[in-house]
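COURSE: Structural Biology Practicum
ASSIGNMENT: Worksheet 4, Part C
STUDENT ID: 0417
INSTRUCTIONS: Below are two proteins. For each, the amino acid sequence is given first, followed by its structure token string. Answer the questions at the end about the second protein only.

PROTEIN I
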Amino acid sequence: MRSSAFTLAARFRWKLVPAMLIVGMGDWLFYQHHLHGGYLGLFALTVIGAMLAGRPLMWRDRRAWVTMAAAVLFGLALIYDASLLAWVLFWAAAGMAALIPATARFDDGWRWFQRLLWLAVRAPFGPLIDLRRLLKVRAAGRAGHWSLHAAMATLALPVIGSVVILTLFSAANPLIEQFFSSLLLPDLSPELIVRLVFWGLLFVMMWSLLRPRLAQRLLPTFDGRGDWHLPGVSAASVTLSLLVFNLIFAAQNLMDAAWLWGWAPMPEGMTMAAYAHRGAYPLIATALLAALFVLVTLRPGSETAQTGSIRKLVMLWIGQNIFLVASSMLRTTDYIEAYSLTRLRIAALVWMALVGFGLATICWRLLRERSAAWLINTNLATAGLMLSAICFVDLGAIAAQWNVRHAREVGGKGVALDLCYLGDLGDSALLPLLSLEQRPALRPEFRERVKAVRLGVYGAMVQDQRHGWTLLGQRRLEQARAMLPRRGSVVLKPGPRDCGGALIPPPLPLSVPTALSARNVAPKAVRTLTGEIGK
């Protein structure tokens, strides 16, 4: 028993070293030097190295190699262009790498979601649980010769009594009071408390990866096979529902095809942009409800799924839903052409594409009688690949470049360029703003506004690169310096400017009659107010 306690203590000490190194590095990077940006990627790669040093079991499991490679990829994405998405995906991959050696196989995404959730929930309590376990093993190994509880019970009375007596003596004896005053305790300032909390956060995050524990009970995957007896759900009701749904969807899809593709004029009082913006997101919600209906009422192996006519109606309906998703994407692109492109609209198009892919996999699952785990894993893998690619793509730069090319000021068909939005994009809009500034046919007033916004973005980026360096930011700065005009640049007029680079006009001075009337009105107002109070 004593050997097991010694072995457990040795394991804890071996894992304690990399955990404390991560705490020290995190404090040096983020607290002492206030670094961010690509330094988050450097910290993430150090976490991977600490995991490999503190958990040798990961070296012997090839499945862990795959998840560790994914974590390294997201760490490199943080160095290239730090983002919240890359940070979240890194910790998900690191958590899977820590847990996967304790699992028999990779089962499905739903179970892994529960495991990662349990890992995050348990993390703040992990060090305390492990410390309690170590003390228990040590106490059992000493076979009753020493016990922490017994020692505390024995020492409680003399310690408490001594503290009370010394406190009373210090009030009566100046020498004892001076002695206790000379004991310098740390000043628990708010800054020190924040720093200690930050240390604790880093430690529990690292300890959870070095000492992970699998969830003992997991909610089973919704397999979705066989008949599920629900009130009002039968082969006849499902057939009738699918007939009605197909007719409704056909009418909607025909109207979309006629109006969006220019086969018929728009209804009176409705513009193409308004029509496109109005229906994109409700149509996606309709497609998701259709997917839920198919998953619940047409489970593989059920009576409804084995009926030939129902299967044909379902295939037709899913096909119409995919067409509906395509119409939603077309509505969004039409709205973008009429107005502008933003990060959120790019993300919406990606989301719609994933919804369309999910509908196709539901159809394939029904035809091939695949399991629910296959459906979940296929869609999660596709979404994971898409999000991993987005980690290395700056959506803001894409939006800024598109808006600059299609702006009304450069002869495009879009609306007037929103320079405030380009300024909010920060360094993502630096190169598009520089290329716009150097276009020959711009109006002088507009060129001046563009330069004002570009100077603000450039100055903020130079300042941010000092503490938040990223590889992409460095490359942009090098390209921007190469593009900067050497001479003949527009000279900005002095004065405060708004977010769009336009000069803010000074307040209008008061005329003489207005000033005199204001001077006369003020005493009258004071007298009136005084009279009202006197009443």
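PROTEIN II
(use this one for the questions)
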Amino acid sequence: MSNATYLSYFHQRVQATPDKRALVFLDDAGTELVERPMTYAELDAEARTIAVALSEAVAPGDRALLLFAPGLAFVSAFIGALAAGVVAVPAPIPDGKEKGVDRLAGIVADADVRVVLTQSELAPLVTAWAQSVRPDLVVLVVDEVAADPAALTAPAISQDTIAFLQYTSGSTGDPKGVIVTHGNLVANEIEIQAALDTDQDIVMASWLPQFHDMGLIGMILHPLFLGGTAVFMSPVTFIKRPIRWIQVMDRYRATISVAPNFAFDFVARRVDDDAIADIDLSCVRSVLNGSEPVQAESIEKFLAKLGPRGLRRSAVMPVYGMAEATLFVTGTPVDNEPRIFDVDAEAFASNVLRPPVDSNAAQVRTLVGSGRPITLKVAVVDPETTREVAPGAVGEIWVHGASVAAGYWNMPQKSADTFAAEIAGGTGETWLRTGDLGAIVDGHLYVTGRIKDTIIVNGRNLYAHDIERAARSVSPAVAAGVGAAFTVGQPERLVLVHEIRPELLADTTHAEVISLIRDVVRSEFSTPIAEVILVGKGSVARTTSGKLRRVRMRELYEAGQITALTEQVPVA
């Protein structure tokens, strides 16, 4: 199937196993999770019904915004858009907050959205919002569509046809619409299959947002691509009761799961050992951790919690990817334990990864390997000279291959700069510039951070996430929140804004916490912090996928719009 589209793979699965469960959504009913299954035949029929209605409303190639609560309807609508040749644009539902509403309006304008797909329970909210954005915007309520699925006239779809636009969450700038073609999607699904050694027996269990790349492509589309089963629930269900993720993996005998790094910490902190005494996770072959970078401490805490319940150390699979490469770029080989690499701190500050000269913890940085690619090419390049650097040297991660997306929607210059870079002295191949920093050691990629999050103090290169991690180590009250480190002024001064939970402080004062943070950062990084600001829960800006918005926090700091939490104010 060298010229196959994602739809052709999906339709093969429908024909081969029409009565097999394609999806199982677990609805949170409070005291229990209510199972809502859908077979391949049912999913195909619903998708074709939606495709017929879409074909009557818009033309192939038009853009359809998908606004759905977590659940089955979203998947039917997404496959329906593909079947109609309409470009799907997944997005979070409008939450009433100014930032979220403005971002959605920006997506509608940028993509020139012609129709909004939603479900009946959200129809009043979505319709009112759509009318406020553009009065001529058509709203199609998919569970109220009455059409004959057999009436679908399939449009001409090839590997070059755009499948969907994945709007990035904007952690380092304005959201951009990544153009993902059927060819990109199929290539990346094949890459994931080879890396994870998955087949039609896959049972994926997760809770990621369905409108983000990891949730959409990894959690939902990958099992459907293979003829497997995707078991999923709302992110809110996980946040309210993280034990449910663990219980679902056990109950459905999941073979694969995927989660960001924070979920590893969250489970370790919030799940009681006695509550999972009867859990058996020996069925789980891989739990993907796709954060940049993955934290070794989080892996160890997660394994300490779930190892006694049958989760093998080799099941934890650090991976690396991004929307601009469709999703997956590298992964730790299946059945291999995570690669933990202690590197010399001084050499690291000079952009070189090498073992430490002694065992002094203050002179060591611990990195986690993100594995290696299968068919994609990965290079580490000096971002200034665009020359490939030596193994072990830190540079910008560049990617080449069929999974690399077609560019950014409506941004030709930005697309050329990002997706058509060439390595100096190379063969003329075009590469994706990821904006991420890393190094290759023994063939494995180690992601060290983002270029825009690099902090240079006194000529030393530091990473914001390392400083934030060190701060979290001083107290459970700090560890329960997130922080943003950044520099301001000339000469550059280091500032840390960090959430704190006062109810976890015991007898420690804010001033003592700040002093501890200053001490640990100075000890680990030989760098003073000019200012530490402790703020309340939810005060540090994040994207819809949970990524820290450090640039935004710096802007708020410089505008004097960050208010420190006083010790008299409790945090719920």
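ANSWER KEY EXCERPT:
Q1: The longest strand covers residues 432-441.
Q2: The first helix runs from residue 6 to 16.
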